[in-house]
Amino acid sequence: MTRTAKKYLAFVIYGNDKTYYQGARFCILSFLANWQGNESSRPEVVVLAEETEHFSGLPIHLFPINAEQKREWSLNNTYHFRIKNRGLKYIGEQLELEQEDKLLFLDTDTYFEQSTNIYFDSILAEQSLMFFPEVAINSLPETNEYAVILNKIFDLEDGSTYSVNDKSTMWASAVIGITGAQLKAFDYADQLIKALRNGGCKAHTLEQFALSEALSREVTLVPSKEWLKHYSTSGRKDWGRKVLESFFVSHGNKPFEEQIKLAKDVSFTRPLFEVIRGHIYKKKKKLRKLFGLKEE
Questions:
Q1: Closest CA to 175 of 262, 102, 245, 73
Q2: Domain ranges, residue 261
Q3: Could you give the C-alpha distances from 94 to 60, 185, 247, in angstroms and in order?
Q4: How many angstroms separate the CA atoms of 230 and 75, rounded?
Q5: For residue 73, which of 61, 62, 63, 59 has the smallest C-alpha distance?
Q6: Residues 219 and 275 grouped into a single domain
Q7: I need a labelling partner for 109 at 20 to 30 A (CA). Which of 2, 31, 145, 227 fits?
Q8: Is 131 in the same domain as 253?
Q9: Which residues fall within 8 angstroms of residue 242, CB to CB, at 6 or more apart?
Q10: Based on the domain organization, do 245 and 117 belong to the same domain?
């Protein structure tokens, strides 16, 4: 009998900011609230986190991040963004992903208002998902932090070499969707991260650029930005924090299926006074920076 491919919805969370954990919980609820199909057709939810207690009692497959893993994955605490890529590779290994299985990673500040089936429907043997193509690396000015890697050849651990080319594009990684067969891209991406950092590039976005390059060698990358909503900007994030706190104070102890239904009616739209307050804050911040004043 042919084995049915499995679907996994995955999150990697480190640090102790409660908003990240509440954001992940709500993202899970929102994703499942917009899933078209019966409960048995849903993806299994997997969370790799430092503080797994935020998900206790929920129907979620939990993996803890211990101190040694965090130290190793962050290159001795010198590059914390590497934890995402290494964590996803670890999840894939722990789940023993087979070639046709599908793994979807989402940032914790995302939520949904349309059918979420499109994500897993769009992860195929010949294509992977990322958020959207941010920039062609060759188009960046000499003052950019990526300039140090242009027109250079880097030796990788597997004996191959790497250099930026005209197709080298950095994709945002708020969404990553792969098959089990594509899991090996995380190891190639890790070689790039190490080589480029050793070459002097300290950009905090190296994890997503390296993964973009690794996946694009093997498959077509498909953007998923239009399929979700997010509150990643500073003003939206402040308001999103309040929305999340209110939701979980009111509903966090209710049955999981009831929380899913309630999540569908939550709005992250900021009231006008919050939008105005955010604009004022940004202008004050620019003025303080212009006159060399310290942050309040």
A1: 102
A2: 234-290
A3: 14, 16, 32
A4: 29
A5: 63
A6: no
A7: 145
A8: no
A9: none
A10: no
The answer to whether residue 20 sits within a structural domain is: yes
d(CA 128, CA 180): 11
Identify whether residues 164 and 113 lie together within a single domain: yes
CB 30 within 8 A of CB 263: yes
State how many domains the chain has.
Answer: 2
- Report if residue 2 sits inside a domain: no
pLDDT value at position 137? 97
pLDDT attached to residue 271: 74
* Separation of alpha carbons 10 and 105, rounded Å: 5
Q: Are 175 and 106 within 8 A, CB to CB?
A: yes
Give the span between the Cα atoms of 293 and 296, in whole angstroms. Answer: 9
User: Is residue 74 domain-shared with residue 28, that is, in the same domain?
Assistant: yes
Quote the tokens at residue 136.
Answer: 């062609």
| 135 sits in which H/E element | strand 133-136
pLDDT of 270 reads 77
Model pLDDT, residue 172: 98
Q: Among residues 208, 151, 159, 154, which one has the least CA distance to residue 185?
A: 208
Q: Is residue 1 part of a domain?
A: no
Residues 127 and 222: beta-carbon distance below 8 Å:
yes
**87-91, 167-171, 261-265, 275-279: lowest mean pLDDT where?**
275-279
pLDDT at 236: 83
What is residue 101's DSSP assignment?
A: -
Tokens at residue 209, please?
Answer: 């650029």
Q: What does the alpha-carbon distance between residue 105 and residue 90 come to, in Å, rounded to a whole number? A: 13
276 and 208 belong to one structural domain? no
